[in-house]
Amino acid sequence: MGCQDEPLVQKVWELYEQISSLENLKPSKDVNMIFTKLVLTCMPPNPIDVTKLCKKVQEMRSKLIRLCGEAEGHLESHYSTILGSYENPLDHLNIFPYYSNYLKLSLLEFNILSQHYTHVPSKIAFVGSGPLPLTSIVLASKHLTNTTFHNYDIDPLANSQAIGLFSSDSDLSKRFFFHTNDIMNVTNDLKDYEVVFLAALVGMDKEDKVKVVDHLAKYMAPGALLMLRSAHGARAFLYPVLDPRDLRGFEFLSVFHPTDEVINSVVIARKYAMPTHSLEKGLGPIILPNKCAEIQAFNHFNQGNMIEELAIEDKLS
What we know:
Blueprint: H1 7-20, H2 29-42, H3 55-84, H4 99-116, E1 123-127, H5 134-143, E2 148-153, H6 156-164, H7 172-175, E3 176-180, E4 195-198, H8 206-219, E5 225-230, E6 250-256, E7 265-271, H9 276-280, H10 305-316
Parallel strand pairs: 1-2, 1-4, 2-3, 4-5
Antiparallel strand pairs: 5-7, 6-7
């Protein structure tokens, strides 16, 4: 496959240059328009493998992901501030322009979680919750109505904004806890969670994300589930990609690649029951999934996704 001569790459590069020239990435007519174009460009299914592109494009992609992350942070902060001005902020979540996407993504993640966990988790951690923790909110209010959520973010302002959304909600204010901490500094507390969600923008490149996953593998409870978000095809210009091979210390269970307006792929893995020190001694840091690993087709989205998961398993086998 070519590099800059690829039409999709050319289009993404043009949009990257436009984004780079913006005065700032806070929500505005121009910012919203360019990022909408970028998402619509990257959304259609595309066989492109970003890892095969030349170094120059790889560097552009890395910068673009950081710009997307910065813009997403500004967008969430902007709407968290608006929501915080309402008497009951959680009654107005639909003003967030991508709220319907979060409803679909959270339902997808709940369905995948239900396939691999035999009972309702009592305690979940969400790493990288941000100023508008929509995944936690939707899961807690619609799917996991008795579960406690511990939300971690490195930014004290983000947590401050998020906390302000819950004070008027008698249910979620009792089930939501916020921790201002770098997850790399959280150790023993990670053993308390049956499920850990890792936000797409924790670790803005693959190397940083792998470090976070390795840290979680070291301190999460044996048998606990890790749910993380990745990207596939052209959508990998928007978010970092994590390969199942990178899940050292975890048993890779399945991956689902949406083909609709939900951008992120969803990966689920289980922490090995084997002690971490055994893994570090080289007794099998990566045990690849066997053919019995459950394939999640979720036909209500797209029947073709089963093929991609089988292809991944064949590649790893």
